[in-house]
Amino acid sequence: MARVYHQQMVERGAEHLKACCVVAARLAERLWVVMRRRMPYVICDVDGIPVSALAA
Q1: Is the distance from CB of 14 to CB of 22 less than 8 angstroms?
Q2: What is the DSSP letter of 12?
Q3: How far is it, in rounded angstroms, from Cα 3 to Cα 54?
Q4: DSSP characters for 29-52?
Q5: Full-model pTM
Q6: Cα-Cα-Cα-Cα dihedral of 9, 5, 32, 44, to 10°?
Q7: 14-36 tens-digit pLDDT
């Protein structure tokens, strides 16, 4: 999510509130997919590789 926030703020020149809203929408979408699939959420690093909760 930090990457999404950084893209909004730096690359697109968005205000803080807009960047936070984009991050919130992404989190809501992830939550919806996890609930729909009835599978646990997998934490991944920035390259998309799953990591443990302690390593995250």
Answers
A1: yes
A2: S
A3: 20
A4: HHHHHHHHHT-----B-TTS-B--
A5: 0.68
A6: 150
A7: 888 888 888 899 889 989 999 99
